[in-house]
Amino acid sequence: MDAIREIRRRARHAAGPVCGALLLGYFVYHAVQGERGLLAWRQVDQQIAGAEATLAEVQVVHNRLAHKVSLLEPTSIDPDMLEERARIMLNLVHADELVILAAPAKGSSATPDLPPAPGFRAAKSMVAQVPAAAKVD
Fold first, then answer.
1. Cα end-to-end span (Å), the chain
2. 81 CB contacts (<8 Å, ≥6 apart)?
C-alpha cells in the first residue's frame, strides 16, 4: 500500500510540470505549424513576392498603354499614331501600297473583320492583286 501512496504523491507533484510541458508543446507546435504560424507566414511572404512581380509587369503594360492613349488625346493628337490605329482597326491601306500579311496565331484574328471605307481597298484584296512577276521566293 505504501507504494501506491508514494506513486499518488509523486504523481500530484509531477502533474503540474507535465501539464505545463504539454501546454508549452501545444503552443510551440501551433506557433510553427498553425494557420498563422511561421510556415504559413513564409508561404504568405512568397505569395506577396509573386503578386508584387505581377504588379510590376502590369504597371509596365499600363504605362505603355497610357503613353499610347496620351498620343491620341484630342488636345495633342499625333497624326502618325492616329493613322496607325485607323489602319489597324479598319484593316485598310492606300491604293498604292503593297501589304504582306503574316499568318496570325492559331485561334486569333490579326484584325477585326470590318467593311472597308469608301476610297480605300481592304488589305486582303491587295495581296490578291500582286502580279506574279513581283513575287519573290
1. 109
2. 68, 71, 72
Question: Where do runs of H (alpha helix) occur along the chain?
Answer: 2-33, 38-71, 79-90, 123-128
Of how many residues is the chain composed?
137
Angle at which helices 38-71 and 2-33 cross, to 10°: 10
User: Strand 92-93 vs strand 121-122: parallel, antiparallel, or unpaired?
Assistant: antiparallel
Q: Supply the pTM of this predicted model.
A: 0.45
Can you give the C-alpha Rg of the chain in angstroms?
37
Going by C-alpha positions, the residue among 126, 73, 125 that lies closest to residue 96 is 126
The burial class, CB within 10 Å (0-12 / 13-18 / 19+), for 107 is exposed
Task: Copy the grid coordinates of residue 75.
Answer: 488636345
95, 121 in Cβ contact below 8 A? yes
Element (H, E) at 122: strand 121-122
Chain centre to alpha carbon of residue 111? 24
For 50-107, write each residue's pLDDT tens digit: 999 999 999 999 999 998 888 777 787 778 877 888 888 887 777 887 777 777 767 6
